[in-house]
Amino acid sequence: MQQGTVILETERLLLRPFRVSDAEAAFRNWTNDPLVTRYLTWTPHEDVAFTRQLFQEWEEASARPDFYQWAIVWKESGEAVGSVSVTEQDLRVGRAQLGYCLSRALWGRGLMTEALNAVIDHLFSIGFERVEAVHAVENPASGRVMQKCGMSFEGVLRKYCRASTGELTDVCMRSILRGEWEGAPTKETIK
Ligand SMILES: CC(C)(COP(=O)(O)OP(=O)(O)OC[C@H]1O[C@@H](n2cnc3c(N)ncnc32)[C@H](O)[C@@H]1OP(=O)(O)O)[C@@H](O)C(=O)NCCC(=O)NCCS
Q1: Which domains does the chain show, CATH number per domain?
Q2: Which end of the chain, N or C, is less surrounded by CB atoms within 10 Å?
Q3: pTM across the whole model
């Protein structure tokens, strides 16, 4: 089932393992932006050295078959503009939970939907049975992305995450099962 962070390509994006050399672009584009991290579990990076250190660890980990952490590269600029990762996995049931974020300058163009569709497709192709994700109740844009990828709303999990602000937050759980994905209409037609 496990293949790690293989390269995936979509119309506008390249998804590939992070490199230390992505740090400057990432810091400029999203890792130091408090609006990006507002509903996430981590706080904005204070300096690019922190981003560089983190990417060093991710670059080394990218050789591992159980490590899924993609840099989202926007083909138009050639820069890393966000990330998608498997934040939790349970191989006994074939369950993968996704996390993701994107540079604020590129919000609202369908890019994360495009990236997630590619990642979901890949995870099912290597044998996962269920792909899930959670978003803060106050972050409906993220829920809309999941919905556009065909993920069903399953309920609210109370005080499930600790936000970067330190607060415990209620989240919506959404998921899609392998059979639903394989039987789904062309992804662009999902409303
Ligand atoms: C959430 C995020 C990944 C979305 O990325 P994106 O590339 O802008 O997403 P898309 O353009 O594919 O789709 C966004 C959808 O949300 C909708 N949306 C935006 N703001 C919204 C709001 N306040 N309420 C409801 N829907 C909203 C958009 O209209 C769009 O839907 P549409 O195509 O039907 O019009 C991006 O905003 C982000 O990185 N946010 C910060 C990090 C984050 O919250 N990550 C997710 C943690 S669970």
Answers
A1: 8-132 (3.40.630.30)
A2: C
A3: 0.95
